[in-house]
Amino acid sequence: MPGSNIAIKIEHLTVSYQAKAVLVDVSLDIPRGSVVGILGPNGAGKSTIIKSVMGFVPRDFGTVEVFGQPVAHARGLVAYVPQRGQIDWTFPVTVRDVVTMGRYGHRRWYQSIRAEDRDKVNHSLEAVRMTEFSDRQIGQLSGGQQQRVFMARALAQESDILLLDEPFAGVDAATERAIAGLLAGAREENKTVVVVHHDLETAAEFFDRVVLLNRRVYAYGPPREVLDPDLLSEVYGGKLRAVSWAEEDKA
Ligand SMILES: Nc1ncnc2c1ncn2[C@@H]1O[C@H](COP(=O)(O)OP(=O)(O)O)[C@@H](O)[C@H]1O
Ligand SMILES: [Mg+2]
What we know:
With 251 residues, the protein is of the alpha/beta class.
């Protein structure tokens, strides 16, 4: 929104589930137009940070602002793609329906879909190469295709901020290219993008800045500074080896 160069401002955020703290005193300024990766081991609180920006989890302490406003007032400025496995894929809607939902914020409930909305939906489907699947039920798609449909919905929203929770996890090469292209496009349009990411290898390629998280922020800055081997072994502990084995298994 006008004025603010900080898209997302998190200050002293502490979140717990059933009295167990999962985020402790997290502070982050995410500048407008930056593409930021959040890295950290399983259970580090990465998804919880993203959900906090959406206002989906109760805070014990701290504040989260979107363009200088409390999240409750700014949710319309943010598009969110949840981590896979958190979506009910049996819900009987088509690919086009899902993407069209991204346009609901642009019209009143009594207005029907306009040509402009339809164009935007088509354009978004094209951007993730899912046009030919427009009439398919979402439950009948592969995981990577489902991921792309949700990306298209986020694109159709035309919001200033995109929050993507592990978009690259377990996707095929075509989907990986589509998502990388989407990140590049978002960067060109000066959007702010926050991506939970599990792959240390590609982090420097995709992100201007990375956050190294494990309940608290260990580092936040340009990938070259943050992805320091000593720091990584501190954050991942013994788990880093396990991470690289898992990568080998996949290859
Ligand atoms: N709704 C919930 N209720 C209880 N515990 C949760 C809930 N969501 C997440 N957790 C726990 O909080 C911690 C952080 O979760 P999450 O933010 O999903 O981590 P990450 O995305 O980094 O893997 C984990 O230990 C997880 O098991
Ligand atoms: Mg997660």
